[in-house]
UniProtKB/TrEMBL annotation:
Leading EC class: hydrolase
Protein name per Swiss-Prot or TrEMBL: Phosphoinositide phospholipase C
Domain PH: 1-107
Span of domain PI-PLC Y-box: 476-592
UniProt subcellular location: Cytoplasm; Endoplasmic reticulum; Membrane; Nucleus
Source organism per UniProt: Burhinus bistriatus
Gene: Plcd4
Amino acid sequence: MQQGTLMRKVKSKSWKKQRYFKLQDDCMTIWYQSKRTGKIESAFSISDVETVREGHQSEVLQSLAEEFPPERCFTIVFYGRRGNLDLIASSAEEAQCWVQGLRQLIEPRSFPLTPALVSCTWIRDWFQKADKNKDGRMNFKEVQRLLKMMNVDMNEDHALRLFQAADKSESGTLEGEEFVLFYKALTQREEVLSLFQDFSEDGKKLTLLELVDFLQQEQLEDEGTEELAMELIDKYEPSETARARHVLSADGFLMYLCSPEGSIFNTRHRALWQDMSQPLCHYFISSSHNTYLIEDQIRGQSSIEGYIRALKRGCRCLEVDCWDGPNGEPMVYHGHTFTSKIPFREVVSTLGNSAEPSYPVPSWMLKGAGGAGPQQCGVPGDSKSHGGSGHPKVSTSPSPTPQELKHKILLKGKKIGRLEDTLDGPRDEAPDVSDDDNGAEAEEERRRVKVDSAPIGGTEHGPALQKDKESLAQALSDCVIYCKSVSFRGFQEARSHSRPSEISSLSEAKARKLIRDAGNEFVRHNTWQLTRIYPSGMRTDSSNYSPQEMWNVGCQIVALNFQTAGMEMDLCDGLFSQNGRCGYVLKPPFMRDKETLFNPSDSSSWEGPGPVTLTIQVISGQQLPKVANSKDGAVIDPLVRVEIHGVPADQARQETKYIENNGFNPRWDETLQFQLHMPELALVRFVVEDYDKTSRNDFVGQFTLAFVNIKPGYRHIHLLSKDGTSIPPSSLFVHIRITE
């Protein structure tokens, strides 16, 4: 990658400043300076970068699409809430040089990065932060300051002994390699070494047979264990001599345990592993509410960034509210509020560029067309211009499958007539414009009905205008295939008059009442028809409800405010992190049976082999992050809480004691145990908090996954931040057992 490049830093259509960007020699830091003054404006670490997007994949760069080609544009996306950095290079070649170079540095998959190298990268990053005078050396005082920054409260005498042992040059300072030695002594994993020695006859290596024993007895690997053992040695043993002898050293053993193969998440379930040929109603579908908003519901900003972030997170069901805009162009925003607006064409363009997941499952657009005049024409027109079709005859089945709808974008909305009429030929039928939605959505729908049904008269153009409106409504209606919005008037009414191609939207309050009053009927309804749940209109702060109670009755499209971090979004990310992150998860068999007796609130209706016992030994933690905005020198007192989210009888939480003043390598060695009656619906959430006896504990990190994706044995849990991004190398080390 080039060491210095002049590029445009862009903040808005009118704010384009030339800046000189340079990657420092450590390959860890990028700084940029003003071309005019030469003053360094800012710097950031490669470890702060989440991803790099090519082309016009930001709102600012899309607004400049006519001025600058996509080949010269790219966006650097940072972890957390730090704003994106939009850049325009002087040439396509220069842009590619930076894009590919940055990706190599931030994405371990792009070249063979071992856990040891990841650790070394992290070490160098900390070294840069603590080396105040930038002389490439650290004295003992600087090391003590660094230990505090790294969440270590160590006895001064012990720290000095480690410092002197690493100071091979006896200079009273640590240089690069000496600091690495100091770090390795600091991070020696006694619990892992003890486990290694339990299976090693000489305490120095694991032979192939000894590694096979460990994989079978502790990791419960039951297929091709000898081949697996050979693969692990070839992949994680750092010594060429040991690899040639087919043995695994203690360093290689630790690398394996820290790798994806040593993760609590079953690697086979990371890829697409479920049947995708079931009807759409047999899947949970990752869904967002008011996707265009990135803040609150009243005055928040509308941005295509909301769509980009949701799609990158695996969301497949997106909401688009279209309203009349200036110059005959439909706009997207939250109607009857003070939110900002974005052009509809930019939203559709973003979906066209970003909607393709690893598996080409169908994406959904929930369209509300608030315009009553000619601007309705722009909705189907823009949709078709980006790959849609007014009559996509992909299947004559009223209940198609994700497999049949690959590469399609489905529109949910009001429809004139029935699905059968669209596929086989139109019939005269009045549109179903009623809906049982509560809150703001219902009010908007009633307003639209009133406008569209009002008599047009008083001018000579009245009949012509009415005819024009009807044809435009028909054009919009024709884009709605398989997802006709209908009012929900009860389960009996739905069985008698509704079709599998229809979908009803319910507020969270209405859904809870149905769960409470008719749980089994709700489950049966969701075996053959789609149901969408949306947040209460009272959640103006964009807070979320728990999606678990809706999934418990089989609701497929459970819409959440993706911009709001918290337990609710952790559950969503946890459920949809499997199956190739395609945004579709197959429901358990008993939730796909139209005659099912299952009711999540009634244990007598549950069928199956009986409860399973989940036993979790929380052993240790590694390099836990400091709490945001904590005082200088503060060190956390971490505890671990394990939560079970599932049917009401399975809801539970237990936690360990807290470890005082050690966020670097705390040891708990505590065992927590849970009984799960319906493990097929359970999600397990691991939360690390900083204990505070006088106030609420502070969040440190979390990781959530579906119970069916848990891999038993000795496993690492790689923690995520509050907004779902990784925080390497922070992790927990646990031992998992599942028994019936």
